[in-house]
């Protein structure tokens, strides 16, 4: 009983670590995408008045 409990806790811990790493990777990609979009919007806003 105790062995199966420790194995269960170990599996939960591994899943938690994997989930956290996946979430961190996703957040990095999302942050980079948002940063690029904001950068492009700023560049477009700065470029539009010079074109007119």
Estimated helix fraction: over 70%
Number of strands: 0
Supply the helix-strand structural class: mainly alpha
Proportion in β-strands: under 5%
Distance between the termini: 76 Å
pLDDT averaged residue by residue: 90
| C-alpha Rg (nearest Å) | 22 Å
- Output the number of helix runs: 1
Keywords: Membrane, Transmembrane, Transmembrane helix
Structural notes for this entry:
Keywords: Membrane, Transmembrane, Transmembrane helix. The chain crosses the membrane at residues 7-24, 30-48. With 52 residues, the protein is an all-alpha fold. The protein has a domain at 27-52. The protein contains 1 helix and no strands. The longest helix has 50 residues, at 2-51. The termini are far apart.
Please summarize what this structure is.
The protein is mainly alpha-helical and 52 residues long.
Keywords:
single chain; 52 residues; mainly alpha; 96% helix; 0% strand; transmembrane helix; membrane; transmembrane
Topology readout:
Elements lengths: L1 H50 L1
């Amino acid at each position: 009983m105790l062995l199966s409990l420790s194995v269960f806790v170990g599996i939960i811990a591994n899943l938690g670590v994997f989930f956290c790493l996946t979430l961190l990777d996703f957040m990095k990609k999302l942050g980079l995408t948002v940063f690029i979009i904001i950068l492009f919007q700023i560049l477009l806003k700065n470029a539009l008045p010079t074109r007119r």
